Amino acid sequence: MDYSLAEIAARLGERVMGDAEVRISQVATLEHALSNQISFLTNSKYRAQLDNTRAGAVILGEADAQASNLPRIISQNPYACFARASALLNPLPESVPGVHGSAVVDESARIDPTASIAAMAVIGAGVVVGAHSVIGAGCCIGDNVLIGCNVRLYPRVVIYYGCVIGDNLIAHSGVVIGSDGFGIAMDEGRWIKIPQIGRVVIGNDVEIGANTTIDRGALDDTVIEDGVKLDNQIQIAHNVRIGAHTAIAGCVGVAGSTTIGKYCQIGGSAGILGHLKIADHVVISSFTLIGKSIREAGSYAGIFPFSKTDDWKKSAVHLRHLDEMSNRIKVLEKLLLKQESLKGSAE
Amino acid sequence: MDYSLAEIAARLGERVMGDAEVRISQVATLEHALSNQISFLTNSKYRAQLDNTRAGAVILGEADAQASNLPRIISQNPYACFARASALLNPLPESVPGVHGSAVVDESARIDPTASIAAMAVIGAGVVVGAHSVIGAGCCIGDNVLIGCNVRLYPRVVIYYGCVIGDNLIAHSGVVIGSDGFGIAMDEGRWIKIPQIGRVVIGNDVEIGANTTIDRGALDDTVIEDGVKLDNQIQIAHNVRIGAHTAIAGCVGVAGSTTIGKYCQIGGSAGILGHLKIADHVVISSFTLIGKSIREAGSYAGIFPFSKTDDWKKSAVHLRHLDEMSNRIKVLEKLLLKQESLKGSAE
Amino acid sequence: MDYSLAEIAARLGERVMGDAEVRISQVATLEHALSNQISFLTNSKYRAQLDNTRAGAVILGEADAQASNLPRIISQNPYACFARASALLNPLPESVPGVHGSAVVDESARIDPTASIAAMAVIGAGVVVGAHSVIGAGCCIGDNVLIGCNVRLYPRVVIYYGCVIGDNLIAHSGVVIGSDGFGIAMDEGRWIKIPQIGRVVIGNDVEIGANTTIDRGALDDTVIEDGVKLDNQIQIAHNVRIGAHTAIAGCVGVAGSTTIGKYCQIGGSAGILGHLKIADHVVISSFTLIGKSIREAGSYAGIFPFSKTDDWKKSAVHLRHLDEMSNRIKVLEKLLLKQESLKGSAE
Question: Residue B73's closest CA among B21, B10, B9, B11?
């Protein structure tokens, strides 16, 4: 399948400069693009790559409109424009509607006739699967789960009983939604389990990366609002709420009952303790533990900088003595202050 | 299903104050409870919520016995009492004994007639599954695995060959028990694999969260003692031993051959290096790396505090120069000492 | 199955001291070995255990050749020698060639007749599985995946469409290869998805631990070179390249488009930010975040040392004031310098 550059621009609502008839069949990096491919520049510092590219066309921002003579689309947001061009050129493979012969679907489940249930999937009682949704191979959907339209579950996703999934969810392989939260109470030397009777409720347009886990609520629900994007290997504990359009990178852990605002961005392997409130538009660096609520939008970090191990050892040894170091400075300051005042009185 | 407050208290061995005939069908938070629901207060600082609750009954500690006029259970351990009340009101769904037609069970496996093997499960040769155990959809149980009674494996748990599972294990979806430990030896520029021939041996009353992995031992076994509670996404390496009733929060990694004592509590995303010994009753903060053995009960931490990114940058830049900073203080101290002694001798 | 010590040594190309006819059937630790088992000593500091072992034979380095009178193999690399002896004594169980009746294999897939496809596996269109490869129970292999020879996928591995797998891969349960990278672009208040059209390409002799995830490339491929060893719960983002014979411990996250050199060793729970270059032969400590490219071989660390929580609090409070602390030292130095120079001019 290919398109002329003019067709692509028209579908994306963007404008063309140069030869609009060049045929484009794929997107590619500036470095590897061929003459039937379109590439993009989002950062002017890569202009050298633009000069050397063999791409048939490029997507450029307004500021870079004259940076190339190639056939080009000029966009206010070249990265988003590229994303849309790629989606146009790489439509998802069609899935065959219907239930694979090997799947086990409870007779009380309501599967939309346009939906697709792949091999080895197991669908519980009372489940609803909406139009054009695809349940991948080996997925297990617990009783009474509600799944919206245009949902795509890759192979081996598990959704526990009673959870509610909006439209357009993409969940990658190994995702677990609705497992029990970590609720235990110590009683005479033994932990006893607190039943986790809340649900996970997921809004529309959410994506969840491979092997990410989202626990069901203890009493109330765990909630993932519209447009949230979660990378791989993330752990979302019970009763967390993640605000709309927040994006979280891989390996992050969010502890129980924490509320994260809208449009936040959380870096990889960061952590957020439980029962906190994070405001909207907060950016958290990778590898940072948030141990207190954040009430103000902005960027937050707490990373131990790396060095050569020998240098690190020299510095790290003082970390256990910062208080002492601070006290020694105080002593020096007092001594000097005394000297100065003695000197002052002597003069 | 509902109970009178008197019935609930009687079953839990607790005492009632106020109207013991109120009917209760569910547990809920103080904030959301309705008149047929019971809530609880474990921390006096939430007394304001107690005043405003619409709950039909509450569970209170002795100290708070008079803090409400609602029908109430008074307990020495209100949180544990609430857990037991919730378990009473939320019994696990009954599972149908027997083997689902789609499951593949080796003919040499011995499945107790009261046990349940769900759809798509695969059970190897020589496996034993005890009374009332439930093997969820799509679970894979390797050859010669021994599974005790009342075990509940949620969908898609894998247990490798030869592992031994006690009674009452709860393992959530995506758990992997008995995968090979990370044993490699460098030989002439290539890593060669060290066969991992130990097992994983799990005691009674253990719970394991979603997508947690526990590697089999290299030579001897990896051991999880009775009553251990593991949250999601935890990695337990080969030959680790975790002492009875220790609880570990999500995303923790424990490296090989480390022994953790009994009744420890380990915070989320913490790490423990290999070949260490952690005493009983040790509490480790979230995000803390334990790099040496801990011989004494107590609380341990090592977290880099977060701040606004600009402030963090100002501080972090000094971390690579702490040794120099310490030396500069020493120089100042010597100088001042010299001055003082000169002054002393001059006087 | 057992061997004489002479047979074992001959097969490994090593030499024997003492009684070469002792029969050996298994490897074991010095502490637990029995008279028909062989153990090993790789570190002279464990010589006391060597004195007390009941092993029938031991593997020793040249330097320890006289440290025991037991029948022994003397090796230049006793750990690798032990690994090879264990592999000899613990051959992998034979898998039955052919496709299990419950597996769903697309008719266009080409499965080598010596390969084994276990129960509940799902194999897509155009897949190729090489000689002697074993696809475990419940694995899902997407369309057009190419799998080499002697590959072993444990139960419930997922490989997305189009990925390429070399010979001898071992992938443990829960591994996901080829899931979408975390590619999103903000557009008028919403994240839009960037199709991930690259592949994952894995060389020969790679091992991947349980629940590790490797994302497919956004445009170009994610590449894992020959001999790479990945532990459990690792996250490899899109377009990462990991150099040959690099070993990565559990829970590490590597962000997008980073290139890691050959023969690197990365400790558990470490992190590497995106778009970085790590040289060959770099060693990174556990729990260390690498935030800049590393151009020089060597050992790098950035760990916050743990202490008792009370002591940690005393130190940690100063971390937010290091800049101020540094400035106070500067002030003291200036003051003293002034004093000294005044004194100098006064003398």
Answer: B9
Distance CA A170, CA A165 (A): 10
Tokens 């120099």 correspond to B324
Contact residues, chain A, for C319 at CB < 8 Å:
322
Query: With the C-alpha atoms ordered C61, C62, C67, C68, is the resulting torsion angle positive or negative?
Result: positive
Q: In this structure, how many other beta carbons lie within 10 angstroms of the beta carbon of residue C17?
A: 18
Interchain pair A286, C255: CB under 8 A: yes
Q: Mean pLDDT by 10-residue block, N- to C-terminus, for chain C (347 residues)?
A: 95 96 96 96 88 96 94 96 97 92 98 98 98 98 98 98 98 98 96 97 98 97 98 98 98 98 98 98 98 98 95 90 88 82 67
Q: Where are the alpha helices (DSSP H) in chain B?
A: 5-12, 47-52, 78-89, 309-319, 322-346
Alpha-carbon separation of residue C71 from A212, B70, C37, C38, C40 (angstroms): 51, 78, 11, 9, 12
Our answer to whether residue A281 is catalytic in this structure is: no
Contact B81, B14 (CB under 8 A): yes
Beta carbons of A211 and C307 less than 8 Å apart: no
Give phi and psi for C328, each to the nearest 5.
Answer: -65, -35
The predicted-structure confidence for B288-338, as pLDDT tens digits, reads as follows: 999 999 999 999 999 999 999 999 999 888 888 888 888 888 888 888 888
Q: What is the domain partition of chain C in residue ranges?
A: 3-89, 98-300, 309-346
Kindly list the catalytic residues of B: 238
Residue found by looking up tokens 């103080």 in the block: B30
Measured between alpha carbons, how far is C150 from A308 in angstroms, rounded to an integer? Answer: 40
Q: What is the distance between the alpha carbons of residues B191 and C225, in angstroms, rounded to a whole number?
A: 13
What whole-number distance in Å separates Cα of residue C147 and Cα of residue C115? 11
- List the catalytic residue out of A132, A238, A275, A321: A238
Sole residue written with tokens 């256990």: A320
Q: Choosing from C100, C238, C275, C321, which is the catalytic residue? A: C238
Chain A to chain B Cβ contacts (< 8 Å): 227
Contacts of B286 in chain A (CB under 8 A): 255, 271, 273, 289, 291
Kindly state whether A1 is in contact with chain B, defined as any CB-CB distance less than 8 angstroms.
no
Chains contacting chain A through 3 or more C-beta pairs under 8 A: B, C
- Beta-bridge partner residues of B57: B38
The Cα-based distances of C288 to A68, B284, B289, C346 in angstroms read 42, 18, 10, 53
> Left (φ > 0), alpha (ψ -120 to 50) or beta: where does B63 sit?
alpha
Nearest partner of A200 among A169, A171, A182, A221, judged by Cα: A221
Measure CB to CB from residue A156 to each of C102, C140, C186 and give the nearest one.
C140
Q: Compute the distance between CA of residue B212 and CA of residue B237 in angstroms, rounded to an integer.
A: 11
Q: Could you tell me which chains touch chain B, where touching means 3 or more CB pairs under 8 A?
A: A, C
Q: Residue B245 and residue B255: Cα distance in Å, rounded?
A: 19
Helix (H) or strand (E) holding A312: helix A309-319
CATH fold of the domain at C98-300 = UDP N-Acetylglucosamine Acyltransferase; domain 1 (2.160.10)
Question: Is the domain defined by B3-89 classed in CATH 3.40.1390.10?
Answer: yes
State phi, psi for B323 to the nearest 5 degrees.
-65, -45
Question: Residues in chain B, how many?
Answer: 347
Whole-number Cα distances in Å, C335 to A30, A336, B332, B335, C221: 58, 8, 10, 12, 60
Q: For residue A46, give the DSSP letter.
A: G
Helix axes B322-346, A309-319, angle to 10 degrees: 50
Secondary structure string (H, E, C) spanning C269-333: CCEECCCCEECCCEEECCCCEECCCECCCEEEECCCCCEEHHHHHHHHHHHCCHHHHHHHHHHHH
d(CA B172, CA B154): 5
C-alpha distances in Å from residue A231, one per residue of A170, A212, B89: 11, 7, 36
